[in-house]
Amino acid sequence: xxxxxxxxxxxxxxxxxxxxxSNLVVPKAGAAGAAAGAxxxxxxxxxxxxxxxxxxxxxxxxxxxxxVLDVLLFYLVLRALDTIEDDMEAFKDDEAAxxxxxxxxxxxxxxxxxxxxDGVGEGAxxxxxxxFGAVSRLFNRLPAESREVIRDIxxxxxxxxxxxxxxxxxQGTADLAxxxxxxxxxxxxxxxxxxxxxxxxxxxSAAGGANYGLANSMGLFLQKTNILxxxxxxxxxxxxFWPQSVWREFARTSDLGEFARPTAHGGGLYASAFDAAADPxxxxxxxxxxxxxxxxxxxxxxxxxxxxxxxxLEYLRRLRTPEVFRFSAIPQVMAIAxxxxxxxxxxxxxxxxxxxxxxxxxxxxACGTMPAVEAWFHDFATRIKRRTPADDPSRPxxxxxxxxxxxxxAASAAEQRQRAAVRNALPAAAVxxxxxxxxxxxxxxxxxx
Length: 449
Ligand SMILES: CC(C)=CCC/C(C)=C/CC/C(C)=C/COP(=O)(O)OP(=O)(O)O
Description:
With about 450 residues, the chain is mainly α. About 70% of the residues lie in helices and about 0% in strands. Farnesyl diphosphate binds near residues 56 and 222. Farnesyl diphosphate binds near residues 187 and 222.
């Protein structure tokens, strides 16, 4: 349901706010020689960024002009690598070829202006690989230090991804340690690389506490939130990232898919186990017990992600550049909102849980300062705490994680509440003063009459 404050935020973000205006300077086409080539490469990269990224395009474009291209290219390079990793069709008969691409990417493909790849990925991602020369040409124009950061992270991520090819995190011996290693390879390293870029471009100082351990947690928090939210989409695509050692504790069969059994009735391709419980036929197979255990497993993974928040808050607290702060904070706030929306929510097993557009706009606009960000974390952690089922087997773990976030953010939440109270009181006070002034005037007139 649309709410007035969310509607206002959405409209303000679209038409009135300068919070996320673009700092990417795309030179006018028509300049001579190499400059014209660079201009059209930049136009392509900016366009493709908008198509392949749901959440990062806007926060990248608002970065300071000196580093927007570093981060844009960093994103596209990793997205291209991720497209190769993600394609379950193109390499289904030749996993070795997928591994070769992943490990060769940083040192053989990136920077080779003639290299491209056809037939891998879909839509805009496929186009990115087909026209990867544009990314390489702009990459070659970056300062050496920026190139080194991007190449190093791409090399390590490619190696980490290649290690996982054919290893299904939902199968085999996958445990929490392996889950953490995978999340480090695909997201924690991004945090490290971005931190190095901020420092290399002089926007954050290493001495000021740019810390790779905290940066790793920032990436893990985003990745783990995506993994638990995308349970159904991944399962339908033949992938499973929920660690086996966790879901086996909760499942009754050896199939992670039992949390989302296909049924003949409503709810899209897969109806949830919750629906099945109410279904006379499905219910015989999947009773209420399955629904409860699916939610218990989900809630355990939510708590596991929530435990990363203290590190994320510490990382954000140390940032000094407003645009870098916004770039880093907005995805984190979106993630805690998504986490709260997924918590104890049976819809995770029957569809995609999304936060409302208006709420997203409201969160983006509120990510300008640390106290505001902390207040949102406080709000979502409090909701998770309140909604924790009394009989959830992970209740102590969930409450401990939520309460730690609540404790760390309590002062900012109180301060924000006070500010809001003053803000809300101001119009009332102004009306009272105006009424008093008018009354005095008219009473004076009457008294004088
Ligand atoms: C220090 C610091 C800033 C750390 C953060 C590191 C970082 C950005 C990691 C990427 C993690 C991730 C899950 C990306 C895809 O998200 P998505 O699928 O929501 O994004 P998309 O919309 O672009 O596909």
